[in-house]
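Hi, here's the filled form for the chain we discussed.

Project: internal
Contact: R.S.
Residues: 295
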Amino acid sequence: MIPTLRAPISAVLLAAFSLSATAEVCVTDDRDREVCLDQSAERIVALSPGATELIWAAGAGDAVVGVVSYSDYPEEAKSVTSVGSHTRVDMEKLLSLKPDLVIAWATGNPKEQTDRLQELGQTLYFTEPRDFDTIASNIERLATLAGTEKAGNERAQTFRAGVDELRERYSDAPPVPVFYQVWDEPLMTINGEHFIHEVVELCGGENVFADLDRLVPRIDRESVLAADPEAIIAGGMGEENRDWLTAWEEYESLTATSRDNLFFVPPSTIQRPTPRLLEGGKTMCKKLEQARDRR
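And the returned structure, exactly as it came back:
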């Protein structure tokens, strides 16, 4: 009789629900590795300030139990246990936190330490965003691992929309040759594969060192003088410290100097591959508009 089928059907539905609730969650990280968890991550350690911002953007800040130094955004991250710096992790402290997911910086964390963490059975997700799309997809992938897809997907879409808006606004802007200074001693810049280069292009700028081979190449002052950029943009040692630009003021023959186009952008908004890159991008775009007005 039909009523006798109710119990088996209920049992099947319950079993199916149980399986879906504990189903394996898998994504591909920025090293093209498949990263799988038996269930959504509940204890997460982020091994770079950028990774910290990304996991918060993914809506999983409540699950973060460990960060590294300079993880200062959002404000809540400052109160999370530190496991050292991105260049030297305190392995004992990290392991004591019993994370079920470690977000590593592919080119920033010591390889011997990330290799050791994997040997010890830790699940690592490597992040290395090089462009706007990868920043957005990292938010979505991390949200998948943390079970916060709705919040993460919404944040990623908001970021993409903001980038599109800036791209449309400055699509016809006259180009401005730009030197972006990443570091002072040694003097360093970015090539055409770096995410900061994409911000420069978004604002209608032209990266004068785009063709160099290394992602973050070392250069000398003579190279900058020869390139004669119309604008120089720098971060600095701190969110309000524009001292790196002071040295360029003595080179009066530089177009950037003679036109007072020495611009500061707070480094945390432009040098971390996170949604705040949109904030840094808006600042940079405004600076390049000033440069155009001074022609």
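Let me know if anything looks off before we file it.
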